[in-house]
Amino acid sequence: MNLSTMLQQLGGGMLISLEIFVLTLVFSMPLGLVVAFARMSKIAPLRWIAKFYISIMRGTPLMLQLMMVYFGPYYLFGVRISTTYRMIAVMIGFAINYAAYFAEIYRGGIESIGVGQYEAAKLLGYNKTQTFFHIIFPQVMKRILPSVTNEVITLVKDTSLAFVLAVAEMFTIAKQIAAAQTSMVPYIAAFVIYYIFNFIVAMAMEKIEEKMNYYK
Hints:
Distance between the termini: 52 Å
Shape: flat
Radius of gyration: 21 Å
Strand content: under 5%
Number of domains: 1
Number of strands: 0
Order of helices and strands: HHHHHHHH
Largest sheet: none
């Protein structure tokens, strides 16, 4: 196999990795905000459920969670697992895992906002929803962006864990080519592609952070 063919195959795997990356962010970030609200709720049972959920997601390996999401329906309910469910299971596993991390990041950011902000908004006639989305949330996003950046960069690397469900993302394809050719070249190529992907993501997040730094 020549280099161009290998890179073409790795590129196809990278598209799968990119799909996992984008869809995980699309689903996990809003879900994380919902979990954060539940975690800070005055309703004790809701708060305990959210706290337990976060504890489970952060306290167990993502690889194990992916396997439970994929094999769980069969072993628990006898539901036949189709091959098309592999990618769905990957997305569910990644989304619920990262939502827990984002929930704690959101919670830390929200709780860092002073009470005076809420009181000022109330005096201006804002209701709770308007206060949060127009005054609190923009400040929260600015404060939590470095932590969010770390999670996003980690997600780029974690996409390789999809191999556990035989989803042919880039790392899986690199392993297959390396095994067939008994060569390290596919691993080196995958290493470079992952690094470039991570570098682009880090630069994009840095630009967003600079734009949100309105004190400059």
